[in-house]
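Schema walk-through. Below, the input block comes first and the output block second. Nothing else is stored per chain. Lengths vary across the set, and this one has 74 residues.
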Amino acid sequence: MAGDKISVTFEVQDDAVKMLDYAAKMYGMPDRDKALRVLLDYLAKDANWDQIFTLIRCVRCGNKGGWKEPASQE
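--- output ---
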């Protein structure tokens, strides 16, 4: 366990929680909390902040309905 952790409450849409659960399961992480920490570490170290925070992405606009689990590739 790298670093001390604190409990924080965030408001996110239901599909975002499903996405974190999916990522955790897909990559063998213990839970959605770990999946979120991985995303935050990526943002802190490797991501292009301008690209992330200035490009408008709306996965919930209109009838898009948010994130959807990818279809099985089997």
